[in-house]
Specification:
With 135 residues, the chain is mainly alpha-helical. The chain is built from four helices and no strands. 14% of the residues are buried.
């Protein structure tokens, strides 16, 4: 006969990924929100736009986690509002930087002509040169 001391106890459920615990995520989003707010206060021009959007995204994700247990929804909201929305806004609202114009033209050439490079006769200045090497 077994005594109560020799009966194995039921295993205690340990989370598989403790860093995905709801409280840990709330704290992490809180830190992200604080950083985004500070960046929005001290940044300028386009960085300020990113920071404001990021602060809104992290605040929405934090609120979602605080009011419910929807971790996946919180991540999706944070990514959509803090990353995708400002990316779309800035890509439409601001002109491309000089280096980005070359990349944009290369992408357009690749889509329309199958090669990202201009024919050598059309390379007339450094601006028309694509600095990536052909493979």
């Amino acid at each position: 006969m077994r005594t109560p001391a020799s009966v194995p106890s039921a295993p205690v459920h340990q989370p598989v990924r403790p860093w995905l615990d709801r409280r840990w995520l709330i704290g992490t989003y809180g830190v992200f929100l604080a950083y985004a707010v500070l960046s929005a206060i001290f940044a300028g021009d386009r960085d300020k736009v990113w920071a404001i959007w990021a602060a809104c995204g992290y605040a929405a994700a934090l609120l979602l986690l605080w009011r419910s247990r929807a971790r996946t929804a919180a991540v999706l909201v944070a990514v959509a509002v803090a990353v995708l929305a400002p990316l779309l806004l800035l890509s439409v609202a601001y002109p491309l930087e000089t280096g980005m114009v070359v990349i944009d033209r290369s992408a357009t050439l690749l889509i329309h002509h199958g090669s990202p490079y201009l024919p050598s006769a059309q390379v007339t200045s450094w601006f028309s040169y694509n600095p990536t090497c052909p493979s």
